[in-house]
Amino acid sequence: MSALDLDRVSHAYGDLAVLDDVSLAAEAGELVAILGPSGCGKSTLLRLLAGLEAPTAGTVVVDGAAVSGPSPERALVFQDPTLFPWRTVWQNVAIGPQARGRLAQERERVDEAIALVGLDGFAHVRPQQLSGGMAQRAALARALVNRPSLLLLDEPLGRLDALTRLTMQRELLRLWEGGGFTALLVTHDVDEALVLADRVIVMSPRPARILADVHVDLPRPRAHDDPRLIDLRREVLGLLGFDEVPAAR
To answer: Residue 244 has what pLDDT?
Structure first.
């Protein structure tokens, strides 16, 4: 059984069609990246999987059950950390257990999530005292504390500087490899998608359809200058309309 299965999903906001007959499946434990033009519906796809919206047509199934609303089993991480500035890192990460009325039983789980993302020395710091990368680590901990089976990542590294982004790419990969969850990553960065993902889904302009499902059958860790990766980069960029990119030699 697939960890997630979208079957002929379409979605529209009024007269604006965003997704058009999209079918996509991912196996448990896969890391799948989604690429496509801005505004094509990538984030909408994540919102449907998170249960924040219902599709106009088609079905959305996660772990064998139809998605009918939000669940801690499906965690969504945004481009902005969206931490509450008046709460410490620990208090931000604890929001999920607290909302479920289980904070007393799951305090240790909060500590574990903070340590997992490398912030155990910053549990009592407020968000304004964190760097961008550290704030995004806190946002990841807030998602992981619920031990989701599906982690939905909506350009979580998009606002970070280049060096911090490379560091966080390695951290995301480490968390995924040790976490036992399925991950769906929306990104505009072709290299990021190819370095991290098992598969790269390439979407068309709005209303989005799937143009290609590119399998990245390369061992990890992957080097950005690996000729095989560069050839895949050329293939994906060609699908996105950038045919002038040279092939690797």
So the answer is: 57
| Percent of the chain whose predicted confidence (pLDDT) is above 70 | 97
* pTM value > 0.90: yes
CB 48 within 8 A of CB 54: yes
Distance, CA of 11 to chain centre: 20
CA distances from 76 to 38, 56, 149, 185, 218 (A): 19, 21, 11, 10, 27
The torsion angle over the Cα atoms of residues 97, 68, 38 and 193, rounded to 10 degrees, is 60
Q: CATH 3.40.50.300 spans which residues of the chain?
A: 1-73+149-249
- Is the domain 1-73+149-249 a CATH 3.40.1800.10 member? no
Provide the pairing of β-strand 65-66 with 74-77: unpaired
